[in-house]
Write a structure and sequence with these properties.
- The complex is a heterodimer.
- Chain A is α/β, with parallel strands linked by helices.
- Helix content of chain A is about 20%, strand content about 25%.
- Chain A is built from 5 helices and 11 strands; from the N terminus they run βαββαβαββββαβββα.
- By secondary structure, chain B is of the alpha+beta class.
- Helix content of chain B is about 35%, strand content about 25%.
- In chain B, the strands form 5 sheets. In chain B, strands 8-10-7-11-9-12-13 form a 7-stranded mixed beta sheet.
- In chain B, strand 1 and strand 2 form a beta hairpin.
- In chain B, helix 6 packs parallel to helix 7.
- Chain B is globular, with a radius of gyration of 26 Å.
- The N and C termini of chain B lie far apart (about 75 Å).
- The chains are: A alpha/beta, B alpha+beta.
- Chains A and B meet through helix 1 and strand 6 of A and helix 7 and helix 10 of B.
């Protein structure tokens, strides 16, 4: 699998994502520059976390209009896997590739800590190797992860199994204290109608090696590898 | 020739603006053999400020050990120290204060402190891998105290998070003494290969000087000089700079990429006194001169004078020395990152700083005169207050009637309660290296592609230093080293920040001198030389000096990351023991301060016993005998046991504590040289044998397990205690009283 990690000015999880992908056998990962026009045959495109364009205007708002995004849209339109992590998720929202918007965390503060998320659907290239209901221990680190969507949009996400990750307790149950940012319906990640575009706030690239405290993120990379090979 | 010098000596008001005494002005006149121009006066004032010239502290700094086979770059040589960690790799590190700006505008003051220390690290050619922050706040019961504290925390988070450099550790303490003068000491650590080390020297006549990054504005003029005088509140308005971490992130990536062109011979950041000190210090290192054309500096505001351009402290700027004829190559890299740059001058062989404005010379000063600020020493006299605070009559301290209630109150105290409400606002995991996160003794980072780990901790106990400056200075080093040793890592080198009151006040000067002597002794005893540092004096407001606050940032190296240890209790049934010769006393303890409002007593530290303890702990960890190791510090044994219990989610059974005397002294009393460890019962004999071999006292105090904390007369549900501990600081920062 050829993976491209897009580097925007201010991306800061780009190297971590490249490193995590590099630990997976069968993945060749490289950076793609925001000002470039083409993705050169990437099977997977990842929009990494960070503070693209310093969060000026709104999180992800300026990156959504970077030159590379034309190629990213074309990649998604072909049904190929596109994953947005944290700021990458925010960019996908601003680009209209995923529905909804982000508000500042309910606490109004940046929050970095471990959370548990439940895989709500295995019907995406990012979660195909996961068991529905599987609980993943992943870190979050964001100031604006409070996901919002209008009631009709939320109904659509729910009815079409497009909520992919929810914040839960360690035992997998829903609980107000398990939601770190106030997201509607405890949503941590969603997919598009075509199911090939996935965005999530937690950082699987920080949970890919046991030495960092969790390997739960690896199921995303394994899923993507299998999906691309299929 | 130089713009006409004034015919009359400057007024007192003019000298006050540049923070020069009349005697210093006369010295400058003699050295120049003429009157300095206005621009020159501003440059001299900046370079001779305490902040840049270390005029009060420089005579003391040679006391600190700075040599060792691991030291690649020692203090004062470059923007930061560099330490060999093996395998051709080096760690670059420095800590720096941003106290005065943070007292006036806490958010931007703290943020730009982080920005400045980051630049110090990447000017060395290193990629920053960690930030730590040592913070001191006034009482959080006070509205302004909370405003300052929350603003400072928010500013650090804003800058560090955006940069993508994890904030992995630090410490925070609250005391009345910091009410008008909070402390913000930011430490940054970078990683590089030895051959990537970059100098900040402007050498090679004809090489070109490029200014890159933010445009230059009127912000921050006189920041350095006003950081060196009393009453920051009155003087700092309009002086505090505003940061732009996005710009700095671009600068970081662009500078590291520019270094790979091979066309860069030197990098220097613009910090205090801006272009002035950047040019002067890099020329000083290169043994050269520099010619600057201020009219070529891109500006944020119109009508700026040469004086303003030279002294602006606008953030996110770097001075790059490019090989002659290759400036365009370097500027092309900056353009890729969307950064503006200008060639503003060149390296000369004049030995002078020449400032030129539209063809006319605005200043011409010998570099040596500027880098060699006059120094001051004073008589060291023991202050009278020490005689008043030293005796502690235990008969005056009533025994608490309800031990469990006293314990819960201590757990909720702002100096003891969980730090999570602060460090969760910092991205402490970005970089994908954080193995031991904040909340333990030291942070531990892996070095990708190697078996190495680096352990990092900051420490400083101002209450101890106030009561006994020498012991306080030594204890800052010892405790930081102990924290590092508790992970299994070997302390290798340290960086220090000396936060004191006015050196012109005898008490503060005594504290400074003795604390430095104590630090020097501990640094030598523990084999961790000082590789960089910073001095912040005049920390006072309303005429009262802050408590003397020496802060140490310690680097340790773990050769095999697999042989590491954390603070969390690991298994029910493990035995718990206290290692070390320290004997707990109420003297100077957090308990005495928070429960009784008393700061008294005589702290002590035996450096030989300390070194033996730390060596033993590292050996036990390397032999994989320990389940946990945790420094026994603020709040004494009871709090150390509770912290390991909370981290491991396991209770403690220690109903019969060893030792005699008051139970509150045994449980809440403090001292140096103690570590709480736990181990499987099967390892007990080996641990005891190793301790005996090392002549380190060991006392078994109980066992891990159960749903309660049973510590002598204390008996409380683990979850209830943890709830109180977890909420104490969060509630204080939110302006709500602790609920016990």
């Amino acid at each position: 699998m050829n993976a491209a990690v897009v580097v925007f000015p201010g991306s800061n999880c780009d190297a971590d994502t490249l490193h995590a992908l590099g630990t997976v056998d069968g993945v060749r990962a490289r950076f793609a520059w925001h000002a470039d026009a083409a993705l050169d045959g990437a099977d997977l495109v990842v929009l990494p976390g960070g503070f693209s364009y310093g969060d000026y205007l709104r999180t992800g708002a300026m990156a959504a209009h970077a030159p590379i995004m034309r190629a990213v849209r074309a990649h998604a339109a072909q049904g190929r896997p596109l994953l947005g992590i944290c700021n990458g998720f925010q960019i996908l929202l601003e680009a209209g590739l995923l529905p909804g918007a982000m508000l500042p965390n309910a606490s109004t503060r940046f929050c970095c800590r471990w959370v548990h998320v439940r895989v709500e659907s295995a019907r995406t290239p990012c979660t195909a190797a996961a068991r529905p209901g599987q609980v993943l221990r992943l870190p979050i680190a964001h100031g604006e992860g409070n996901y919002r969507i209008d009631p009709d949009g939320l109904d659509d996400l729910r009815s079409r199994e497009r909520v992919i990750f929810r914040y839960v307790s360690e035992d997998g149950g829903r609980a107000p204290a398990a939601n770190p940012n106030g997201s509607v319906d405890d949503i941590a990640g969603i997919c598009n109608e075509g199911r090939n575009v996935v965005g999530l706030m937690p950082h699987p690239e920080r949970a890919t090696e046991a030495v960092l405290g969790s390997e739960c993120g690896r199921v995303l990379w394994d899923s993507l590898l299998a999906a691309v090979r299929a | 020739m130089t713009a006409e010098a004034p015919s009359q000596p400057p007024s007192g008001a003019v000298l006050a603006e540049v923070a020069l005494t009349r005697a210093e002005y006369d010295l400058a006149f003699d050295l120049l053999d003429r009157a300095p121009t206005d621009v020159e006066l501003g440059i001299i004032g900046g370079m001779w400020s305490e902040h840049c010239g270390y005029k009060h502290s420089r005579p003391l700094l040679p006391l600190l050990p700075s040599e060792g086979p691991q030291v690649l770059i020692g203090p004062g040589e470059e923007n930061a120290g560099a330490v060999d960690i093996g395998r051709g790799l080096a760690i670059v590190m420095k800590i720096e204060s941003h106290n005065h700006p943070s007292a006036v505008e806490p958010f931007q003051g703290a943020a730009t402190g982080v920005g400045g220390i980051l630049r110090d690290i990447f000017t060395m050619g290193a990629r920053p891998i960690a930030i730590l922050d040592s913070l001191r706040f006034g009482p959080l019961t006070d509205r302004r105290g909370r405003y300052l504290a929350n603003g400072i925390i928010g500013g650090i988070a804003w800058y560090g998070n955006c940069m993508g450099v994890p904030t992995v550790g630090g410490e925070v303490a609250v005391a009345e003494s910091y009410r008008g003068n909070p402390l913000v000491n930011a430490m940054c650590v970078g990683l590089l290969e030895h051959d990537q080390l970059t100098s900040a020297a402007a050498a090679g006549t004809g090489n070109e000087l490029i200014l890159v990054g933010a445009d230059t504005g009127r912000d921050g003029i006189h920041g350095a000089t006003f950081a060196s005088v009393d009453d920051p509140e009155a003087s700092h308005r309009g002086v505090v700079q505003v940061g732009n971490p996005f710009m700095e992130k671009l600068l970081l990536e662009a500078c590291l990429e520019a270094l790979r062109t091979g066309a860069v011979v030197g990098l220097q950041d613009l910090g205090a006194t801006g272009l002035t000190s950047a040019a002067v210090e890099s020329a000083g290192r290169g043994g050269s001169g520099v010619e600057l054309h201020v009219d070529r500096v891109a500006r944020r505001a119109s009508g700026m004078t040469p004086y303003e351009v030279m002294l602006s402290e606008s953030q996110e700027r770097m001075l790059v020395v490019a090989e002659r004829g290759r400036a365009a190559e370097v500027q092309a890299v900056f353009a890729t990152w969307g950064l503006h740059s200008d060639v503003i001058g060149s390296v000369t062989d004049s030995g002078a700083l020449d400032v030129i404005d539209r063809g006319a010379r605005a200043a011409s000063l010998p570099i040596g005169m500027l880098t060699d600020a006059p120094t001051y020493t004073y008589e060291v006299r023991r202050p009278a207050y020490l005689d008043e605070v030293e005796p502690l009559d235990l008969a005056e301290i009533p025994m608490p009637r309800d031990p469990t209630d006293a314990f819960l109150r201590l757990l909720a105290a702002p100096n003891v309660a969980s730090r999570a409400p602060i460090y969760q606002q910092y991205d402490h995991m970005v970089g994908a290296n954080t193995v031991l996160a904040p909340g333990g003794d030291a942070a531990l980072l892996r070095i990708k592609g190697t078996p190495l780990g680096v352990a990092l901790a900051t420490d400083g106990n101002s209450r101890t230093t106030y009561l006994h400056p020498y012991v306080g200075g030594a204890a800052a080093v010892a405790e930081a080293a102990r924290n590092v040793s508790c992970t299994g890592a070997r302390p290798l080198a340290l960086t220090n920040c000396l936060n004191f009151g006015s050196p012109e006040q005898p008490a503060a000067y005594y504290q400074l001198v003795h604390a430095v002597r104590g630090m020097a002794a501990a640094s030598a005893a523990l084999g961790a030389p000082v590789v960089s540092g910073n001095v912040s004096l005049y920390n006072e407001s309303g005429g009262e000096a802050i408590w003397p606050t020496p802060v140490v940032g310690m680097l340790g190296v773990l050769d095999d990351l697999e042989r590491r240890c954390g603070m969390a209790f690991g298994a029910d049934g493990d035995e718990i023991a206290v290692l070390g010769a320290g004997r707990p006393l109420l003297d100077g303890s957090e308990y005495l301060a928070s429960a009784f409002g008393r700061v008294a007593g005589r702290p002590a530290l035996d450096l030989v016993a300390e070194a033996a303890l730390q060596r033993l702990v590292r050996e036990l960890i390397a032999a994989r005998l320990l389940s946990s190791a945790h420094d026994c510090a603020d709040g004494g044994l009871a709090v150390a046991l509770a912290e390991s219990a909370f981290a491991g989610g396991r209770g403690v059974q220690a109903p019969d504590l060893p030792g005699g005397g008051r139970w509150d002294a045994r449980l809440f009393g403090e001292c140096q040289t103690r570590v709480v460890v736990s181990f499987a019962p099967s390892a007990g004999a080996a641990v005891a044998a190793a301790a005996a071999q090392a002549a380190v006292p060991m006392r078994v105090v109980g066992a891990v397990g159960g749903p309660r904390l049973r510590l002598g007369p204390i008996d409380v549900d683990l979850a209830q205690a943890e709830h109180v501990w977890a909420g104490g600081l969060a509630q204080a920062l939110a302006g709500r009283g602790a609920s016990v």
